[in-house]
Design a protein that fits this description.
heterodimer, A: seven-stranded mixed sheet, four-stranded antiparallel sheet, 0% helix, 47% strand, B: mainly beta, globular
Chain lengths: 118, 116
């Protein structure tokens, strides 16, 4: 019973390149969440998606960042024209569908992708 | 707005000591969940516990125990007889249902170092 799978584990990009981070949710989970952890800080919410739909992107930077969760395949967090300030650990979490205002599973996190921008 | 405060940035103890990590939260939601996660040096996030706002019963799991007090908006975490392997950053988090959707709000974390 695989957990949330993220890849790559480590990603190095030069300034100006694009970074693509992948997240496969746990089996049976249809909701995905992305969080960012800057060095020496706690995690900050970025975006919440379900398949083919962005539910809440209130934590996403307005420029250069985008996220998708297609009908087939993993969720992708894409960072265009990376800058040094994008260096962080990016975590993905997943959950079953939220029904009736209740939350029927804890948020299981992947092992994260550590992005380093040189 | 949701807020989680972990006032202790770093704690250092000697093995076998008991240690309590504090967590205070703010929310306007009447229904919410509180979490603790452990982040060892390897970097992954390990889920430890989830409590809902209607269940104030304290919980014990091995050497871990949690004290949820709604009156003081606190959800403290105690490790009894600490071990070197407990060294990690511990995060408290809040999930509010009505005003924050499914966004977890994390505290800044407490770095626990257990020395042999």
């Amino acid at each position: 019973n695989a957990g949330v799978m993220q890849n790559p584990r480590h990603l190095v990009r030069r300034r100006g390149q694009e970074a693509r981070l992948r997240c496969s949710p746990m089996k049976g989970h249809s909701h995905v969440y992305w969080y960012r952890q800057l060095p020496e800080e706690g995690l900050k919410f970025m975006v919440y998606l379900q398949k083919e739909n962005i539910i809440d992107e209130s934590g996403m930077p307005k420029e250069r960042f985008s996220a998708e969760f297609p009908k087939e395949g993993p969720s992708i967090l894409r960072i265009q024209q990376v800058v040094r300030g994008d260096s962080a650990a990016y975590f993905c979490a997943s959950s079953r569908a939220v029904t009736g205002g209740t939350y029927n599973s804890p948020l299981h996190f992947g092992n994260g992708t550590r992005l380093t921008v040189t | 707005a949701q807020k989680v405060t972990q006032a202790q940035t770093e704690i250092s103890v000697v093995e076998k000591e008991d240690v309590t990590l504090d967590c205070v939260y703010e929310t306007r939601d009447t229904t919410y969940y509180l979490f603790w996660y452990k982040q060892p040096p390897s970097g992954e996030l390990v889920f430890l516990i989830r409590r809902n706002s209607f269940d104030e019963q304290n919980e014990i799991s091995g050497r871990y125990s949690w004290n949820f007090q709604k009156s003081t908006s606190s959800f403290n975490f105690t490790i009894t007889a600490s071990q070197v392997v407990d060294s990690a950053v511990y995060f408290c988090a809040l999930l509010g249902g009505e005003t924050s959707g499914s966004r977890l709000t994390f505290g800044e974390g407490t770095q626990l170092t257990v020395n042999p």
